[in-house]
Structure formats: structure tokens, C-alpha cells
Known about the structure:
Helix content is 38%, strand content 22%.
Amino acid sequence: MQLLNVPIRAYFSYRDERIISLYEHALETQEKWFAYLVRNGLKTKFGGDFGFTSDMSYEVYQRNVPIQSYNALYPYIERIIRGEDNVLWNTKVEWVAKSSGTTQAKSKYIPVTNDSLKLNNYLSAKDTLTFYIALFPDTEMFAGKGITLGGSVQKMDTEATVKCGDISAVLMANMPAIGEYLKAPNKEVLLNDDWNKKLHLIAKHTANENITSISGVPSWMLLVLREVLKVSGKNRLKEVWPNLELFMHGGVAFAPYREEYSKLLPDVFFMNMYNASEGFFGFQDQRFCDDLLLLADNGIFYEFLEIDEMGSTKQQAIPLQEVQLNKNYALLITTPAGLWRYEIGDTIMFTSLHPYRFKITGRTTHYINAFGEELMVDNADKALAEACRQTGAILAHYTAAPVFLEATKTKGGHQWLIEFSTLPDDIEKFKTVLDQTLKSLNSDYEAKRTGDLMLIAPEITIVPEETFIAWLARKNKLGGQYKVPRLQNDRKLIEEINERNQKS
């Protein structure tokens, strides 16, 4: 393996044109991809239904094609699943990625095409390594192997003609040979559909490997790392994998987990990624800031809808050149998998326009606005991280929901169900810091909390360890692609967990 490090590193270090393209030519490349996508869409049933032409302008595209939810696209996706060709994209679709959406919702099936794999997923993976090597030119990462934590290939009903899996499993099943060679353990283990068995097998098969990188959702990767320590009998991961240098994380915000990872992996670079079932949209390109560089030259055309306009009759999406700093946008994508003006469900905020960098602020469905507080996941993650920092706590999982006004209550509030790996040394201080930090981050929350005007102080409910893992297991949602919903506008999830805990 050591012999491969120098040539592979050299290959990625000579891809300077990709850095220039993503930094300096975002708007030009967006125009290029728009034209490419429309040309291919012209040959599809969707394109026929919505009046695609070879010279269709962006303005006509906006007029002809309404913003698409999953439900709006599903009749087309169902035809793909049943074997029909040229429905959303002009090539045969052999795979769909099963997306959790929210873990309370019915699963979504996102088309994956050879073009989307080539032009987006794998190109973006290569770009990630190009930028990493630009940051760390002396890396020895390719002298060892990497663990990619993901899902599994799954069965669909008997009428389906496509194969199905979590996006990580789809990528793994179609991985180029060199990528497979650099992964550990083998594909059979990584695609195992029994999460508990896979967890143990990953640890067993990698405890004696030279692991130099790991990637996955932080909450699930923690379980792997703890199992590795258990299997190896070591006290520190540095003793197991002395050359581990990179953790590529995504799926959930890293802030609540940063402190625990800093203790577990003190010498590892944590690289923020935005790789969803629908596409690979961004990665961290700086050492000391985890904002994400928008991948504007990777097969996808982007649009943005101000969060305040969502659902309004006046809602008007804008292209990249019109975005502004510090505004919450819902993300819309057009992709070579046939997702047309598709509302992915994530909200982002641009932090730089030269180049285009952003941070994920939450989900269009994951926020609390029961009393006009407009509390976003980004606010919650940062406030919890600060409360943990000041009280020595380490967080495992959380969710929060409103406490609604009742006949006997004149004010509402928020209940936070929190599972800790390490309890805070002072729970009252934890609650105070959480509340004060939320006020400092969110003026709407602050206004409703000032003088207990509308909201009383947060209610913290500590739940036993593995509460959320057990909830996911009951929902048949164990595995690296599934996440606990953070913020809800209703109490369904919280009441379900509370009722279960009271019975046990």
C-alpha cells in the first residue's frame, strides 16, 4: 500500500483546474450544466409534459416547470421502478436510492443514473480528495485504507425492475476497482443488512488494518469506534490506528459531537461533507472553517427559494448569481438523475459569495415555529454544543418539540429529549446556557422568551442511553443513512418515546 501513496497523491495534486473551476467559474459552469440538463431532458417523458425545447431559457424553464416535491415526481418515479425508460432522464435507470426523508415518513426512492454517478458523485469524490491534498500536500492517506460507513442493498416488491439501496450502498456497489481496493473491510461486510452484525464485523475486520481515513454519519460512526476499542482491547484509537488522519462526516451537524470526537481522535482532521441521496453538493475546503464549498461544476443546476416565501403564491426561486449572504434558502436542484426543480428539503445560508460557500441551517420540515420563534436546527446544534462545552457533557442524540398552550397554561415552551454519553455536571446550568445561547443566535426566539412573553424556559428530559437507537430499531431504520429528527412542530415523536420509556 505504501507504494501507492505517492502516485495517487501526485494524480490528485495535478488537478488544479478543478480548484480554479469551483473557486472562480461557478456562474459560467452553472450555465453550462443548465444547457446540458435541458438538452437531455428534451428526450424524456417529463420534458414532453412540460414543454422542453432545445433552446429553452432559464426564464421559460421557471415558467413551464413548477417546483417539484417528491409527491409531485412520484408518478414518474413509479414508472421508472416498473421498468419504463426515458421517463425523467434519457438513459435506463438501474438503481434507486432509498432515502429516509424524515424517519417518521414513508421512504423515498430517488433515481440514480450512470450519468449522475459519473458527473456528480464520483467526480465530487475526486474533487474532495483534490482539495484535501491541497490542504495537506504531505498526506500519507493512500498508504492505508478507508472505512466508509453506509447502508445496504435492499429488496423491493416483485414488480420492481430496479435495484435499491441507501445511496452509500449504491455508490459502493458501483465503485471503481481502485476505490474498492482502498476500502476496508470488504464489500460483503460493508453491505451487510444486519446493522448489529455489520457493526461487529467492521470492527473485527479493521482492528488490525492500517486505517488512514473514515467516513460516515457522526452518530453512527461513534458506535463503530467504540466497538473497535472493545474488539481490539485498546484504550485509545491511536493505539489501534496510529495513521488515521481524516474523518469525512456528514448527514447531521457535527457541532454536538465535536468534543467527543476531539477526545477520541485528537490528531484527525474533521472534514465536513454534504453528500445526500439526491446528490453531492459541497465539502469543506478550509482547515479552520467547516463551511461548505458549493459544487457548482458537478452536474447539478441549483436554485434557491427564500424560506419565508415557501408555500406563498408569490414564491419565486432564484439562480446562483442572485443569492445573498445570511439569508435562509430552501435548496432546489436539477440533476442528471432526472430531478427537475426538486425541493430537497434542506435549508442553507451562504457565508461567502467569492467563492460560494454555505452552511446547512436545517430542514424545511425540521424546525419549531409554534409560537413565531422560527427555531432552526442550526441554532439548536450550536446552542447544545455550547451547553455541553460549559458543563462537561457529551451528547449522543436529541429531539425537541413544542409544549403547546392548554386551558391551564397561558404560555408555551419547548421540551428537549436528550440522550447523553456523559451527563452534564450541572443540569440547571446546562438548561440556562442552552436558553441563553438560543437567545443570542435567534432574535425571534429571544423576543418570545424575553420576560417569558410567550415561551417559558426550556424543559429538559434526560432519556436513558440507547433510547434513540431503540426507537430507530422499532422503525426498522438502523444503519448509517438514518437520522433522528431534531426539531418537530408536533409532539408525535416525543410522545411516542415518552410513552415507551414509561412502560419500560
